[in-house]
């Protein structure tokens, strides 16, 4: 009996190890999550306050000792107006324009963090700074989170709804039978794109309406532009799913690869937390993911009322990625398992 029991235990353990998907979920993925968070949020301590600045910070090292204050995260900003908007929405506690003389700073009159930082600043810099006051209701975390959650839902639906299903078709011989018909690979892939696009956009609209009724989050931009952002994002993610399914013949391998792609994308695309102030290499890697550009564009439209011009860089990235993924999937697509 012991030998039989031992044989079954060994067989089951080997089955688990050889199942790439299960092994990834239970062993590799938690390890990657821990390592990823450790690298993104490295450092001896976490800053309590966020202060943005526009210009060269090194030029004010001696004249403004405030920039040496501990527990304050100083974030370089690329645009003046959008940074002021972040102060209005309590996403930044203070913001400095270092290119003016005297240096101007913006503080939200309704922000408790901004008040305490301003007292420290005035005690150190006195009349060498010029105050600019803004006001605005704090952007709740859930308001900031909704665009990313909708984008993440689109990502999972697109990757698994297209990639995993096509691999199952290939394994079950459905694709091999379709190969005998006049249907071309491009036509088959295009049909998958249209089908999944119709379903996911309908589901996303339903979720958006339900979230609006239940949570009452603000919508500052155009509904039509937001829809276009999500449509283009879904198209890009569907195309990525097609690339993954172009030649894979086993469902286990497909599931493992899709999980390996979707989890880092979810972590590093700014869905759950802002990447402002993160390591520069993390921000560069994030630009490689379609989900990053979908989330950024959706947040700009919903939270900041951005128009087409403001989100054009993100849309351009999504268009280029879609064209690249569709080309790769069409050229590498295989009907049978290749056995």
Amino-to-carboxy terminus distance: 39 Å
Average the pLDDT over all residues and give the rounded result.
Answer: 77
The description of the largest β-sheet is: 5 strands, mixed
Helix content: 55-70%
Radius of gyration in whole Å, from Cα?
25 Å
Number of domains: 2
Query: What gross morphology would you assign?
Result: elongated
What's the number of extended β-strand segments?
5
Describe this structure in words.
The chain is of the alpha/beta class and 339 residues long. Helices cover 64% and strands 8% of the residues. The protein has a 5-stranded mixed sheet, with helices on both faces.
Keywords, please?
339 residues, alpha/beta, D-Maltodextrin-Binding Protein, domain 2, 5-stranded mixed sheet, 12 helices, elongated
In summary, what is this structure?
The chain contains twelve helices and five strands. It has 339 residues and is an alpha/beta fold. Strand 4 (103-108), helix 4 and strand 5 form a beta-alpha-beta unit.
């Amino acid at each position: 009996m012991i030998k039989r029991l031992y044989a079954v235990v060994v067989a089951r353990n080997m089955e688990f190890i050889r199942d790439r998907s299960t092994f990834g979920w239970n062993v590799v993925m938690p390890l990657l999550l821990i390592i990823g968070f450790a690298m993104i949020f490295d450092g001896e301590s976490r800053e309590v306050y966020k202060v943005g600045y526009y210009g060269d910070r090194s030029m004010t090292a001696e004249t403004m000792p405030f920039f040496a204050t501990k527990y304050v995260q100083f974030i370089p900003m690329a645009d003046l107006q959008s940074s002021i908007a972040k102060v209005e929405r309590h996403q930044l506690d203070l913001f400095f324009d270092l290119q003016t003389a005297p240096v101007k700073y913006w503080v939200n009159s309704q922000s408790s963090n901004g008040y305490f930082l301003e007292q420290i600043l005035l005690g150190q810099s006195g009349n060498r700074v010029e105050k600019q006051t803004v006001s605005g209701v704090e952007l709740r975390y859930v308001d900031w989170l909704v665009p990313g959650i909708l984008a993440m839902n689109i990502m999972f639906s697109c990757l698994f709804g297209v990639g995993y299903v096509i691999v199952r078709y290939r394994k079950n011989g459905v694709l091999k039978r379709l190969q005998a018909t006049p249907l071309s690979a491009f036509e088959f892939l295009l049909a998958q794109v249209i089908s999944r696009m119709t379903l996911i956009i309908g589901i996303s609209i339903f979720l958006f309406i339900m979230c609006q009724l239940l949570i009452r989050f603000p919508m500052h931009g155009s509904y039509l532009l937001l829809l276009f952002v999500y449509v283009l994002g879904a198209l890009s993610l569907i195309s990525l799913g097609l690339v993954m399914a172009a030649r894979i013949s086993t469902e286990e391998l497909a599931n493992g690869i899709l999980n390996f792609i979707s989890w880092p994308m979810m972590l590093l695309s700014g869905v759950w937390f802002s990447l402002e102030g993160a390591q520069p290499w993390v921000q560069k890697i994030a630009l490689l993911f379609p989900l990053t550009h979908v989330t950024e564009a959706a947040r700009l439209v919903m939270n900041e009322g951005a128009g087409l011009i403001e989100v054009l860089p993100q849309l351009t990235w999504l268009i280029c990625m879609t064209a690249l993924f569709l080309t790769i999937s069409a050229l590498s697509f295989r009907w049978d398992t290749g056995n």
